[in-house]
Amino acid sequence: MSIKNHASFSGRLWRILRYDWPLHFVLFLTNWLPDNIPFLALRGALARFFLGRCGKNLRLGRNTTFYNPSKVYLGDDVYIAYGCWFSADEVIDIGNEAMLGPYCVVVSSTHTSECGSFRRTAGRCAPTRIGAGAWLAAHVTVSAGSVVGTGTSVGANSVVLGELPNHALAAGAPARAVRASTDELSR
User: Fold this and answer.
1) Hey, how many other C-beta atoms are within 10 angstroms of the C-beta on 134?
2) Which residues of 55-75 are buried (b: 16+ CB within 10 A; e: fewer)?
3) Hey, what domains does the chain have and what are their CATH numbers?
4) Which residues of 98-121 are buried (b: 16+ CB within 10 A; e: fewer)?
5) Which of 60, 94, 119, 162 could cysteine-pair with 44, CB 3.0–4.6 Å?
C-alpha cells in the first residue's frame, strides 16, 4: 500500500469512526422517540457533535440519513423534519433558521456515466448551500452545486438545479422563482 493510499485509508477510517458511526448510533437509539419539540431538540443536541459544524438549537426529525456528516455544516436554529437525506461528498452548508420539510434530499455530488454505466464512475462534486431563513417544503430535492437564497421558500416536490434568488417563492422541476416572498411584498 502506497503512502498516499494509506493516508487516504486512515483519513476515511478516522471520518467513519469520528463522525459516521457515532451519528448513526445516536439516530438509531433515538428513532423510537416521537417527533415533538423536546425529542426533536434532544435528537439534535446529541447529533450536533458528529456534524462538520452545527450551531445551537438543532431540531432533528426521525429517520434522517447523513452520508459523510463531517461535511454537513448547519447554522443556529435549523429544523430538519422526518426522513430527510443528506449526501455530502462536498460541503453542504445550511444557514441559520433554515427549515427543511419531510423527505427533503440535499446532495453535493452528481452521478456521471462512462461506457454506458453509472456504477463505477466518479461523480461530479460541488458545494451546496441553503441560505439563512430558507424553507424547503416536503419532498424538495436540492442538487449538487445549487444555492437556495436567503429567505427563499421552495414549494413541495420541487427540484432545485442551480441558483434561486434571495427572498423568493420558487416551485417546479426545475424550481424557478415564481415571485418575491410575502415579506418582500409587504415592505
Assistant:
1) 27
2) bebbbbbbebebebbbbbbbb
3) 3-185 (2.160.10.10)
4) bbbbbbbbbbbbeeeeeeeeeeee
5) 60
Beta-ladder partners of 31: none
CA 15 to chain centre: 18
How far apart (Å, rounded) are the C-alpha atoms in residues 100 and 6?
38
Element (H, E) at 124: strand 124-125
Environment class of residue 144 by beta-carbon count within 10 Å: exposed (0-12), middle (13-18) or buried (19+)?
Answer: buried
Nine cell digits for residue 130: 441553503
What residues have CB less than 8 Å from 139, skipping those under 6 apart? 101, 102, 103, 104, 156, 157
What does the block give as the cell for 119?
A: 456504477
Task: Name the 3-class secondary structure at 117.
Answer: strand
Calculate helix-pair angle for 37-47, 21-30, nearest 10 degrees: 160
For residues 175 and 155, what is the distance between their CA atoms, to the nearest angstrom?
A: 8
| Neighbouring C-beta atoms of residue 174, cutoff 10 Å | 14
3-class DSSP assignment, residue 86: strand
Summarised one tens digit per residue, pLDDT across range 106-137 is: 999 988 888 888 777 778 899 999 999 999 99
pLDDT digits (tens, 9 = 90+) for 138-151: 999 999 999 999 99
